[in-house]
Amino acid sequence: MEFSELIKTATVENVLLSRAGLPVVKGTLCITSHHLLLSSCPRGDGQPSTEELWLLIRNVDAVEKRSTGSSGTITLRCKDLKVLQLEIPGLEECLNIASSIEALSSVDSVTMMYPFFYRPPSLKLEEGWHLFPLELYFQQIASQTSRWRLSNVNRDFTTCPTYPPAVIVPAAVDDDALRKAARFRQGGRFPVLSYYHSKNGTAMLRSSQPLTGPNRKRCREDELLLGMVLDKGEQGFIIDTRSAQTAKQAQMTGGGTEPKSSYPQWRRLHQPLERGRPLQESFIKLVEACNTLTNMDRWLSRLESCHWLSHIKAALSTACLAAQCMDREEASVLVHGVEGTDTTLLVTALAQLILDPSCRTLTGFQGLLEREWIQAGHPFHLRCAHSASSHARLTQEAPLFLLFLDCVWQLSHQFPFSLEFSEHLLITLFDNAYASAYGIFLCNNEKERCLCKVKESTHSLWAWLNEPGEKRKYLNPLYSPNALVIWPSVEPQSIHLWQGELGPALSWAA
Question: Which N-terminal residues, if any, form the signal peptide (predicted)?
Fold first, then answer.
């Protein structure tokens, strides 16, 4: 496929661009393979304008068309929640431009996306991709305990297609047992170490649900694996991010939970967190409420009915529970839901931010995202295919990563001195998860990134963020290192709507 085949009209003169709160801009509109480009007309003072607007077409979530006589108006609703309106002279040109944007924004082939074509002169392709190797993280753990080992059982991705090649597992469990345990877990996601709490030697693991089914199947290797996490007489906690009823229903269709009789040292706690369509619909209602002018009572009613703040409270509460089990109860924890790629990662990542001051630094937070979201197999390509404005029937989309970023913002709001990075970093991550010039959020897991040669063919976002001139933009000027655990409040008066300016859907270049 050639991009030129999708572009029906490449250039239109005298286009008017309108954006909320900004003056109207008149200029020449151009469509390229990956960008919508608007060059503004001369300013009238005899000097030609050199200002240009660039919009990554992948950022477009929905295209709305309206005709007015011989001209037309296109409204672009972007994934980062910006809204642009283009008034285009000539109805045919308007329809062609709209059709071209729709076609280009719908290209689903990973290797045809902009990161595979972006080549900034200041960066090298290999930079940033190996800043946070799991081997380095394991070395930190190995310097404190010998109970864990780094296993390459998944080096060819055959044991688990959504795990990275290397995982951290109990030292007493061999690779053959890991392979058998993987067959007992949905998608092969057997329990692996997520975080080692050096303060008291407790561990947090993550996995997918066990495939016990209605016949209560057992797996000795899975029982052995979890048994090796605990000493004799110790108790661990399994935090299931489903309700007890949902978990029971899953058992009737082949899934299930760890029965007490087979895992006597583990106590199961159910902390239901929404995922999938309910979470996506909550996000859509939130955006609609924020875009609707109404009186205060009506606004508060709409905000409450979307339940977004309730999802934040539930996520933070569950993360606090996991952190409390480890820090105060001195007990190890296993977190899982169904697949172990969504709410599971939300909980394990937040719990580490609460417990570990190193994760609250700019570099440590990037490493956390790399371990607990990217390498851990969160399906970014599926979850971030659309945002809140798409007219398509949404089936796989869910803003789990945005919910995580919102929870991190809540932590920064309650502990303004304890996080080294600023809100600007969270907004930048949100923007790049949905549409980016960098390859770090491409695909759904490490196996797909290997097949698409993402690390060989695209630039890493981490390389750009860590350039000295860029890095300064993301630092919190109020930061003061805090070695303590930070326990967030989940009381209604403590959880706020994130009111920060969401990121730059478009950029002006002189």
Answer: none
Instruction: Write down the pTM of the prediction.
Output: 0.94
Amino acid at 294: T
Q: List the beta bridge partners of residue 267.
A: 237
Tens digit of pLDDT for each residue in 262-318? 999 999 999 999 988 899 999 999 988 888 777 788 888 888 889 999 999 999 999
Distance CA 65, CA 38 (A): 18
Burial of 372 (0-12, 13-18, 19+ CB in 10 A): buried
* β strands within 79-224, DSSP E: 83-89, 148-151, 167-170, 192-197, 202-206
- Give the 3-state secondary structure percentages of the chain, helix then strand then coil, rounded to 5: 40, 20, 45
Q: How far apart are CA 272 and CA 246, in angstroms?
A: 9
DSSP of 341-373: SSHHHHHHHHHHHHH-GGGGSHHHHHHHHIIII
- For the chain, domains (ranges, CATH) are 3-107 (2.30.29.30), 134-483+490-509 (3.90.190.10)
Identify the residue whose tokens are 């572009």: 7
| Residue where the block lists tokens 């970023």 | 405
Q: Which residue in the block uniquely carries the two structure tokens 């990037």?
A: 366
